[in-house]
Amino acid sequence: VQLQASGGGLVQPGGSLRLSCAASGFSLDYVFIAWFRQGPGKEREGVSCTSFSGGSTYYSDSVDGRFSVTRDNAKNTVYLQMNNLKPEDPAVYYCATDGRPGSSCPGDYYGMNYWGKGTLVTVSS
């Protein structure tokens, strides 16, 4: 069971990136996917969680209105579209899940059992 986040890179302020979270060894159809980030000198922060059905997606206040999540179940991949990137957005971004079929997004972003290797997002002019 593995998750792999990818798609990070260098972007100018106001720019966009799309991160991918690909799963192997299990299907994303039945689990929620949460996105986290950890910036330099900062604690890890939960930024988004999308339900297993994709019917509900939650965003932190810091990214609401700028980030969006989509699923491609055929590719077993979840995407985090990041628009209007700001100087406070640089971080290593991770995707994670508890891996339990049908479980709901935790309100406090606790309880993740599976973490992907992160991908670095840099915002600089």
Report the strand count. Answer: 11
Distance between the termini: 38 Å
Oligomer: single chain
Q: Indicate the radius of gyration in whole angstroms.
A: 13 Å
Strand residues, percent: 35-45%
Content-based structural category? mainly beta
Let me know the largest β-sheet.
Answer: 7 strands, mixed
Tell me, rounded to a whole number, the average pLDDT: 94
- The dominant shape is globular
> Which regions contain 5 or more consecutive residues with pLDDT less than 50?
none
Estimate percent helicity.
under 10%
How do the SSEs run, as a string of H and E?
Answer: EEEEEEEEEEE
Helix count, per DSSP?
0
Give a topology summary.
Elements: E1 2-6, E2 10-11, E3 17-24, E4 33-38, E5 45-50, E6 57-59, E7 67-72, E8 77-82, E9 91-97, E10 114-115, E11 119-123
Parallel strand pairs: 2-11
Antiparallel strand pairs: 1-3, 3-8, 4-5, 4-9, 5-6, 7-8, 9-10, 9-11
